[in-house]
Backbone:
């Protein structure tokens, strides 16, 4: 692909555990180029810049033509996983010092019956959790005025301990922020260079534990993200010039660097969120509104659920076992990627993951010093991957090293390397199937009605087998699957979310004028934010949402208002009907006439970017022979080594039908079409495997 010399371009960069993916399109959304470069764990900004340079070279444009770099960062995620964030001081209402330790007094659901499992420790040790004398009640009224001396005492203690960030969360500050705001002023006088996170800005909602956890996490990540983004901005300015840097958030939208620095918690899991957005976008283009999206990269397997053509957004999530109360795409992530390591436990059973070989040293077949068997090594042993043409020919895989690594498993299990490799694939597939069931079957969703949408560098090799195991309708492998999360970053919109807590309003008795005023206030904030970032008129989309629950119950459901016009009594009644329908879907019953509480009002403000357009081909008939590049033996269960046709995806055109067994290769990924299945090529080169007919 070549873009005109006078065209400006947008580049998306998604940093993964093993590879950094970069995708480029022009500013009108036309044309796509994609590359993979190795991730640079010591300084991920180097990998980002390498990706930008490589994809510009692939597209035939100079880096001076880059107008925007959209970045999905793993910096915050890695800081949480590795516990390498900043030293945080936590200030809370007197009597609530132990809120982070006590939490909800619940055991992790994943280890509910395991007596050795415990909740992850708080990000702030108890000796850095201090108290301010103050109290606001559940209506926002002041019971005890703020004792400013108690705040100054805490500030002195934080200074003596050398804290790098401060989190403040007072009781009911979401209804009255005066005490938090004043405490921040006092602390900033004593610690002028230390960033302060306030709960009334991070998560202005009720539930003090979740609000405190979100605020602390933001403080924990802020210095890390500031340092990383400043470094990256400096590199961009030096090497590219005036390109704008946008950062993807966990809600699936992008934002400015300044916002990401202030609300660092919103950047966690941003790369995987972009993939789900891309899957929803692609599904809408192809008339698929019920999708399970799966992204299999080097270290993780990310699962998203799409219903009605939209990715599911929740405000009740967690990062690394710690709760967050912000809008995030509902993702389930497990340790199952191409780099996941196979091992034998003390009982002699084969396991895969969650430990990964990562980018350094990587799988044994990479030849970078790795010796432990990984999923990628197993696929090489089975002939599913082409060792002479991996990652667009930039790497050659060492088959002998892969066989030696898998051989360590085979020797312990008393079987051939091929059968051991097949065992590794079956175990990792079982892990992934279980992960998919967690977000579908365990929630009462019949997964057989859904399409499996698979992407990621390793996803296509496993996709059809996963869909078959779950009896799903079809498997879809989109164009550019190895870099599809990065495509999703280009497809995202600039997004800001706003929330107003109501403090408990019965919907049937709500004052429509008051609700309308609150919505309009948030919409004005959204327009102002987006206007400052270059969006106006029809490029701004505002969506009104609400959290509702049955009075007396604990948890609420989030849903958009059916009527996006001015709030009216009829509109509230329509909202209540929608709530009843969703409640029945989730819990199988709903008592008509129950009083319903409006908990929060929300506005999602989006700045609409150009739509990404996939190049299309004309229908060339069903025969895929023109795209065949050869054949090779591939090992299948029950059939052993089977001569298998190999096709180049670039040679496939609309209407071609590829019958299994076959391998379809492309620059950044490969797709396995097992025996007994067929893949049809869509106009945009997407592969659709209809399993209902198999």
Residues:
């Amino acid at each position: 692909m070549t873009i005109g010399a006078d065209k400006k371009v947008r580049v998306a960069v998604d940093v993964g555990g093993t590879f950094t993916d970069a995708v480029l399109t022009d500013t009108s959304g036309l044309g796509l180029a994609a590359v993979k470069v190795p991730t640079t764990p010591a300084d991920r900004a180097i990998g980002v810049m390498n990706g930008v340079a490589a994809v510009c070279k692939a597209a035939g444009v100079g880096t001076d033509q880059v107008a925007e770099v959209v970045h999905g960062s793993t910096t915050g995620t890695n800081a949480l996983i590795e516990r390498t964030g900043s030293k945080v001081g936590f200030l809370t209402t007197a009597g609530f010092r132990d809120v982070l330790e006590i939490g909800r007094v619940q055991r992790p659901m994943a280890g509910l019956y395991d007596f050795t499992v415990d909740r992850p420790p708080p990000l702030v040790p108890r000796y850095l959790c201090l108290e301010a004398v103050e109290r606001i009640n559940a209506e926002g009224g002041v019971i005890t005025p703020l004792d400013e001396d108690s705040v100054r005492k805490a500030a002195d203690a934080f200074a003596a301990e050398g804290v790098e960030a401060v989190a403040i969360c007072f009781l009911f500050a979401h209804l009255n922020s005066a005490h938090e705001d004043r405490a921040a002023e006092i602390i900033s006088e004593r610690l002028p260079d230390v960033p302060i996170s306030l709960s009334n800005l991070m998560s202005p909602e009720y539930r003090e534990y979740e609000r405190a956890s979100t605020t602390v996490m933001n403080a924990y990540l802020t210095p890390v993200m500031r340092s990383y983004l400043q470094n990256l901005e400096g590199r961009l300015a030096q090497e590219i010039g005036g390109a704008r840097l946008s950062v993807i958030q966990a809600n699936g939208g992008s934002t400015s660097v300044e916002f990401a620095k202030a609300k660092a918690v919103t950047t966690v899991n941003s790369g995987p969120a972009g993939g789900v957005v891309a899957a929803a976008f692609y599904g809408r283009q192809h008339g698929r509104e019920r999708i399970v999206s799966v992204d299999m990269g080097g270290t993780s397997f990310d699962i998203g659920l799409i219903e009605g053509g939209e990715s599911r957004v929740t405000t009740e999530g967690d990062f690394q076992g710690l709760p967050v109360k912000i809008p995030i795409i509902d993702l389930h992530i497990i340790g199952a990627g191409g780099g996941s390591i196979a091992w034998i436990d003390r009982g002699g059973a084969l396991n895969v993951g969650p430990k990964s070989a990562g980018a350094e040293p990587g799988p044994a077949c990479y030849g970078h010093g790795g010796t432990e068997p990984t999923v990628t090594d197993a696929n090489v042993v089975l002939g599913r991957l082409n060792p002479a043409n991996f990652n667009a020919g930039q790497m050659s895989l060492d088959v002998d090293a892969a066989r030696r690594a898998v051989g360590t498993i085979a020797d312990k299990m008393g079987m051939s390397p091929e059968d051991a490799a097949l065992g590794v694939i079956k175990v990792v597939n079982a892990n992934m199937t279980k992960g998919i069931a967690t977000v579908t079957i365990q929630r009462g969703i019949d997964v057989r009605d859904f399409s499996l949408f698979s992407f990621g560098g390793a996803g296509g090799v496993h996709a059809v087998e996963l869909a078959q195991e779950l009896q799903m309708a079809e498997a879809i492998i989109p164009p550019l699957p190895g870099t599809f999360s990065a495509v999703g970053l280009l497809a995202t919109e600039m997004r800001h979310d706003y929330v107003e807590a109501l403090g408990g309003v019965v919907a049937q008795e709500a004052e429509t004028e008051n609700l309308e005023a609150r919505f309009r206030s948030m919409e004005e904030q959204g327009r102002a934010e987006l206007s400052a970032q270059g969006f106006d008129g029809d490029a701004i989309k505002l969506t009104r949402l609400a959290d509702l629950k049955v009075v007396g119950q604990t948890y609420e459901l989030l849903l958009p208002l059916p009527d996006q016009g001015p709030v009216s009594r009829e509109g509230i009644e329509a909202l209540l009907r929608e709530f009843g329908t969703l409640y029945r879907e989730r819990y199988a019953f709903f008592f008509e006439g129950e009083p319903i509480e409006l908990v929060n009002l929300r506005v999602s403000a989006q700045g609409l970017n150009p739509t990404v357009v996939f190049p299309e081909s004309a229908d060339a008939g069903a025969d895929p022979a023109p795209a065949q590049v050869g054949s090779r033996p591939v090992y299948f269960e029950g059939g052993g080594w089977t001569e298998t046709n190999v096709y180049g995806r670039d040679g496939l055109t609309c209407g071609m039908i590829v019958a299994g067994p076959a391998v379809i290769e492309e620059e950044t990924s490969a797709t396995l079409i097992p025996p007994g299945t067929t893949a049809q090529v869509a106009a945009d080169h997407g592969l659709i495997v209809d399993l209902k007919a198999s």
